[in-house]
Design a protein that fits this description.
Blueprint: E1 2-4, E2 7-9, E3 16-17, E4 27-28, E5 33-34, E6 44-45, E7 50-51, E8 64-65
Antiparallel strand pairs: 1-2, 3-4, 5-6, 7-8
């Protein structure tokens, strides 16, 4: 655990984030988002018309044009 601004923060790994809504657990970034850093509290949204094929994406290169996926 890391102590940050008076709160105990979890060292969430790339592809995950701590949204502080589920206590001290890390959540995977949802489809359409990625996170390439540790200790994140949010994930970064893919550019317009891009999406990820899975949750827990770790890099912007995981974002691919949406027409590559079935909707």
């Amino acid at each position: 655990y890391l102590y940050l601004l008076g709160l105990f923060a979890v060292n969430c790994q790339p592809g995950t984030f701590n949204n502080f809504n589920n206590g001290t657990m890390c959540s995977e970034c949802p489809i359409g988002y990625y996170q390439n850093e540790s200790l994140a509290t949010t994930c970064t949204k893919c550019a317009a018309d891009f999406n990820t094929s899975n949750t827990g994406s770790k890099d912007s290169t995981d974002c691919q044009r949406k027409y590559n996926y079935k909707t």
